[in-house]
Structure formats: structure tokens, C-alpha cells
Amino acid sequence: MYDTGVKVPLIVKFSENEKAGSYDDRSISFIDYGPTVLSLAGIEPPKVMQGMAQFGQYAVDKKPKYTFHTSDRFDEIYDRLRAVRSKRYKYIKSYNTELSHALPVSYREQMPMMQELRKLYNEGALNEQQAAWLHPTKPEEELYDLQNDPFELNNLAGNPDLQDTLIFYRNILDEWIKESKDLGGIPERELIDKWLPDGKAKRLPPLEVAMRDSVVQLISPQRDATIVRKHSQDSIWKVYIKPLSKDLNFEAKAERIGYLDSEILRME
């Protein structure tokens, strides 16, 4: 959750070199990429998409004040972390304080540098700042002043002069968890059981058909599914983007990651 893990450089090349050489200090999240690309292409982002269009025809009016960050699994180890970041402060919430920040992930533990760090830590050869990441437990809350402490070494959560700031960011994160319907509090096994009843993926419901004038409109009851269609003799499916002619012979179905495809609809 530290900036060394969540802060990523971003370069955008606009059409015809618009804004070439300029710098924008807004905070952008990865989930903004999809809506932004659609907006740049003149397509209104669907309501089911998270994130906000940052540029293009459907760009939001206000720049985001905060970015939100999540982490739940590191290879074979579960560790729930949530964070909110503004330009000045970052607040981190740990739900598994009994785990170290330096999780003993098998892949990392076999690295010579990690083994050397463990050795130095056990010998007490690291200073306070170097050893902080390797402690066997971690604090429930962390607050950092990114302006004065860009490497996030001085946890201010216990500072009595910053309790209002701590509560402010804690409330922002709690509200985002509610609004985003964050599932991190539900054990992964329970999520899988809900996602795969009796260990099997759900099948998407059949497509619905609406006849209008001389065209056929396809509708999926599963709103976030993608409809694809093809001619019966073709092997490649194409994304359905507009009504089709009544005179056209085709096959269509709904698809979505995590679900079985719907039954194939054949129009002849």
C-alpha cells in the first residue's frame, strides 16, 4: 500500500499530439483507464463500469481528490489491506495485524536479498526504519504526511495533533468500502461457493429478442454480459453493437467471465 507499490508513471499520447509536453497532476486509478479510453473514442462509458473518464467527450468535470487501494492475497497468503490517498496524506487500514508487512511468500523468501534481510533483522543489525517492514506484526492504522515524509517512514496515526486528520481519512475509506460494495470482509471460500453453486459456474440466461420495424434487437437479462453473434458458417464471434436486419441469418449468445455462455440463439 506504500507509494513504492501503488504509484505508477503514466504517459498519454493524444491524437495529433494534443497537449504534447504538458503535465497533469491529477490522481488517476487503473479502473479509470477503461472509461477514459471509451470517452476518448466518443463512447459513453456504461454505468456498470467502475472508474471515471478523465479525458475525452465524457470526462468528469472535477479531478479526483482521492485514490483508493486494495490488497487481499499475496500468492498463497491472505492479507486484507485498504488505503486512501490524497496529494497530502495516505491512510492505511490493516485487517490482519497479526501478519507482517513482509509476508513470508515462498517466491520472495527464496531470493538471496530477502534471506539477507531476514538474517540482518534477526541479528538486530537493521535500524528502526529498515526493520519496520520486517516486524512480525503491523499496526491497524497508518497515516503518512506524503509532503514531508514521501517514503512513508513516520506513522502519524498515534499523533494526538493529527487525530482529526486520522478520523477524516478513516471515514472516507469506510464510506468508499460501503459504496463500492467491497467484498474483502467475506472469506474467499464463501465467495467461491456463492459464485459457483455446487462447485459449478452459473449459466447466463437466454437472450431475449425484440422485433422493431425491420430489425432484430438482442437483449441479455444479465446486464453486464457481452452479446456476441456470428453467421452459422463462421468460426469467429463478433461483439453485437447494434440491431441486426430481420433478413440476416445468424447465431448469438451472451458471455461473461465466470459464467457459462448462454444457450445459442439461432435466427434463420
Automatic annotation (TrEMBL):
SUPFAM superfamilies according to UniProt: Alkaline phosphatase-like
InterPro entries, alphabetized: Alkaline_phosphatase_core_sf, GAG_Ulvan_Degrading_Sulfatases, SGSH_C
Pfam families linked to this entry: SGSH_C
Domain N-sulphoglucosamine sulphohydrolase C-terminal residue range list: 1-125
Gene3D superfamilies in alphabetical order: Alkaline Phosphatase, subunit A
Coiled coil: none
Domain of life: Bacteria
TM spans (from-to): none
UniProt-listed PANTHER family: SULFATASE (PTHR43751), SULFATASE ATSG-RELATED (PTHR43751:SF1)
The name this protein goes by in its record: N-sulphoglucosamine sulphohydrolase C-terminal domain-containing protein
